Structures
1.
Amino acid sequence: MAYTWDSSLETGHQKIDNQHKQLISALNDLIEASSEGKGEEEIFKTLDFLTGYTIMHFGDEEKLQTKYDYPDYYVHKRIHDEFKNTVGILTRRLRDEGPNRELVGEVTDAVGAWLLNHIKGDDFRMAAFVKTKEEAATV
């Protein structure tokens, strides 16, 4: 299943939205690499990018949260940390078992579902808070 960016995923914070678009694109690249049989090297290259970009994105979100004293920072960070752990486990499984289509599908389904739910819930709340603080700072 490919993932599509649409307005229902827009948090209203340009930097966060742009990074979310990149994450969805990377997820789709992983699906494509597997479904087109591009080989282990391409699958792992795409997976490594997705993993690295996710870590960078989480760091950027957490910096915004600390900059503006987001009240749910610790909860949001814990959610990020738990997801990074889950991705680490899935990545190890892919490396140990090999990136067969079934396992890549399991990984992309898990990552995709988590990402969409996280954006529409935790990130919407956080982005609205940050945006309010940023607007107040420019007045």
Note: The two ends are 44 Å apart (CA to CA).
2.
Amino acid sequence: MNDEEFEAIVGRIQQEVFVETRKVFGDIGFERWRKTRYNGRMSDADSFARITGNCGDTMEIYLKFKDGVVEKASYFTDGCGSSALCGSFTAEMATGRNPDQLCEITGEDVLRMIGTFPKEEEHCATLAVYTLQAALDNYMQQQTNRSAS
């Protein structure tokens, strides 16, 4: 097999993966899957949390606050593409919100934002939101401890 034949095979496989992924995640999810946003550990976060779900995926959410509002949020996961997608949308939803608004974010909200998502993977949205809530809880505890000092 020469280089041209090899490249043609790789191109066909990539197209098949893209078609299948777009079918599973829809247009919005597919585009985010291809160009992930908000991914990575944040070294200067005001708070973070790490939770391992029943599926074995671990989700981390990082929050940076300014004037009582999330200025920056990010996620990191060792999980599947569905976990990464949910982490990305959860971080996006957290950005620009205050603690009360963060409490209102649900897994259903994340799934609605993505649009199309496999039923058997919906637990990934719940994992991302639980991790966000744990990061918020950690932040609020830190604020309470600072006030008490």
Note: The mean pLDDT is 96.
3.
Amino acid sequence: MIIDNKAVVSIHYTLTDDQGTQIDSSAGQEPLAYLHGAGNIIPGLENALTGKSEGDSLQVVVQPEEGYGLVTDALIQTVPREAFEADDITPGMQFQAQDDQGHVQQIVVREVSDEGVTIDGNHPLAGKVLYFDIEITEVREATPEELDHGHVHHEGHSH
């Protein structure tokens, strides 16, 4: 079966950055299964997998625009230290914040100074070129329930 919209695709992957540093991998785990065409994975990777088949291996380079986007400067801001309940705030710490519309997003502390805490609401991989080594382990038709829900259901689980 050829990968196209409405197919369930299972892949093993290794993700690295520009320096070849491993960011993530499915090695030693179950393959990643997703519903092709449902926006379950980043567009650049999904586009590269379209038309491929079970057993194919490929290397994919995804530019930021087709990955996690470019860095948005508006998502980087300095807030007063009092905005945090924690006393010991250090760069690299991650928090969840809620915006005015009630959406929750992950933020990362970039810098701590007397003036405040600089936080970044961009995805940690925003602005980065991503390098994937992919092995396609399975391609199958999605069930009507998976299509209705927009994601893969693993054996024995409907959600």
Note: The mean pLDDT is 92.
